[in-house]
Amino acid sequence: MQKKAANLAVVTNNTFEAFKADNLTHYDISSALQTTLEFDELVHIFSNKIQNLIPHSGFVYSNEEFDLEIKNGIVTRSSCSYAMKVEEQQLGELKLMRRQKFSEQELTMIETLLCCLIYPLRNATLFQQAMNLAFTDVLTQTRNRSAFNDIVRREIRLAHRNGNHLSVIFIDIDHFKSINDNYGHQCGDLALTSVAKWINESIRSSDIVFRYGGEEFVVLLSETDLDGAELLAERIRQNIENHIFAYGLETIRMTASLGTSTLRGDDTLDKFIDRADQAMYRAKQTGRNRVVTA
């Protein structure tokens, strides 16, 4: 076990091999961790399972590869942190917290117990990497329509269950066909990647961008009401309009038409999406380069 500064230890697969040889009493923890491939569920299960052995008031799990930070419980000054990896693959960092300092015996036990967690985390990492590849638009590096269909259903369930706002913005590039016709499809591809970049520059870290199809993008906004969605849509519209796209010796100005809607209490998925889609088409029909709210 290699110690780092600030009580940060590295738990590796080598540690796990030693653990298997010396200690087989934590089968219950390992079995419970085999039931999911979700990072959030894994760290919650692990925390609950070790609570009687290592009492703690909260935890923070972070994973830079997937831009994750999962928090639970009470933040305290006393903590211990562990970076985990297997076969040189980084699996994130787990911090356990409580008011009183952890003893050396407890720290040793935590390091042993964490060996139950590294392979489930490795499996979750491989699963998430595969899902990211399957759900990513290769050209724009935004999420694709399959990802949207999956994520929007989950977000609708959460919004209905928790009583939270959920909004969506549909974005369609104006006169995109003329870009392809006049300058070629390579120029069209560069235009799409530029617009995706400008959309990402305009949104918050909690918002998700999808390429819905062709020249159409969607932004999903959790915990955002209709006024907030309209403000964000206008920011996106202005950011696209204010950029000049250069291709060879040509400069091309682009605009977009945007439609927004917010989830209502009796909404189905189709109703929620259709309102934003229809609002976007009204923006097209009433002059383009504008935001229409449903």
TrEMBL record:
Protein name according to UniProt: diguanylate cyclase
Species the sequence originates in = Methylotuvimicrobium alcaliphilum (strain DSM 19304 / NCIMB 14124 / VKM B-2133 / 20Z) (Methylomicrobium alcaliphilum)
* NCBIfam families in the record: GGDEF
Q: Report domain GGDEF positions.
A: 164-294
**What GO molecular function terms would the record report?**
diguanylate cyclase activity
GO terms under cellular component = plasma membrane
Name the catalysed reactions: 2 GTP = 3',3'-c-di-GMP + 2 diphosphate
Q: Which Pfam families match?
A: GGDEF (PF00990)
Q: What class of enzyme is it?
A: transferase
EC numbers:
2.7.7.65
Q: Which cofactor does it need?
A: Mg(2+)
A GO biological process held by the record: cell adhesion involved in single-species biofilm formation
